[in-house]
Amino acid sequence: MKAVGVVVEYNPFHxxxxxxxKQSKNQSNADVVIAVxxxxxxxxxxxxxxxxxxxxxxxxxxxxxLVIELPYVFSTGHATHFAEGAITxxxxxxxxxxxxxxxxxxxEPFFNTYHLIKAHEEEYNSxxxxxxxxxxxxxxxxxxxxxxxxxxxxxATIDLSQPNNILGYHYIEAAKRLNLSIEPSTIQRIQAxxxxxxNVNSSIASATGIRKAIFEEQLLQRVKKYVPSETYxxxxxxxxxxxxxxxxxxxxxxxxxxxLRNTPExxxxxxxxxxxxxxxxxxxxxxxxxxxxxxxxVKSKRYTWTRLQRMLTHIYTGITKEQLHQSSKPSYIRLLGxxxxxxxxxxxxxxxxxxxxxxxxxxxxxxxxxxxIRATDMYALGVELSTKEKIxxxxxxxxxxx
Length: 402
What we know:
Elements: E1 3-8, H1 15-28, E2 32-38, H2 52-60, E3 66-70, H3 72-75, H4 79-92, E4 97-102, H5 108-119, H6 121-133, H7 138-150, H8 163-177, E5 183-188, H9 207-217, H10 229-242, H11 248-260, H12 264-267, H13 278-287, H14 291-298, H15 305-317, H16 321-324, E6 333-338, H17 340-349, E7 357-358, H18 367-387, E8 400-401
Parallel strand pairs: 1-2, 1-4, 2-3, 4-5, 6-7, 6-8
Antiparallel strand pairs: 3-6
Keywords: ATP-binding, Cytoplasm, Ligase, Nucleotide-binding, RNA-binding, Transferase, tRNA processing, tRNA-binding
Pfam families: HIGH_NTase1
GO biological process, one term: tRNA modification
């Protein structure tokens, strides 16, 4: 059986994701689609809208055959680290190819961009440092350095101001640098941009637009046309039980407590908290009544919204720099769910996997897995304190089978 891999968050699974899953299978002529999916905390430093079990069901009901978890260490990392973890896992589980959505839509410009940066690596890094010293944020410095390099070639290269292009580049860069056999391909992102609000004249919307509509309008019905019926049912089931979807505002009281219970020196021990920000975090937490107010009180040119959210994720989960960086590569494949086809693939290919497959966590002692379990526990605690309802935990939940 031939497998194609996709890197996802499914927060939530929408019609664009359904299109991507179908196109991935068709383009690669694969028998099985495998999704490596972030757990409860995501790459932009946010808690997921609903738990990973509901999101796994959405995927399995809509064309994904196997869902494996991207460990917390990678799912909350910057783009390079996120990509390394995800592509390593797809390669380890036997995917011959992986596909990603992009604004570019064709693969050759991605290869051209990779070779351009690789050939001028020293100059590129020097330009980044120059821009950073002027007070420009690190992501913007990367972009400006790259734009200077682009002038050197006539071949088509990608626009690295576009979020999906950026991730796609990092996927390819990770596969090349780690010398993995898995081959990349891309699918044109259609109709809705990453940050776009929902459009009443389309049935395709970004996950960002869908979440924005849910939180601002407090009306789940508003997003029904933008998600498959199975996704809508999972969202409805969650809403009926918990009466709220999860974002930082839901967890603000507990995040605020987590900040204020620490001294400035203790805050600097948490992952991604750079020295100098700790006093600002405490000052803003003392006077902010909401997460939004807090972020506006602490945000600056030096610290982007995403960078701050990643710091806050680690403070909330209590994960330190030392814990986050004790492992640089995935050490296992954590199975979250499978279809009958996915189960057949596991039976056929399992002995060829280059990492151990974990279906139940109770018998496994691994420091990376321990962080995943803690992240689940802290997510569950926030949900339970906010809603007075229990959610599934890692030790209690076997892989979902459809």
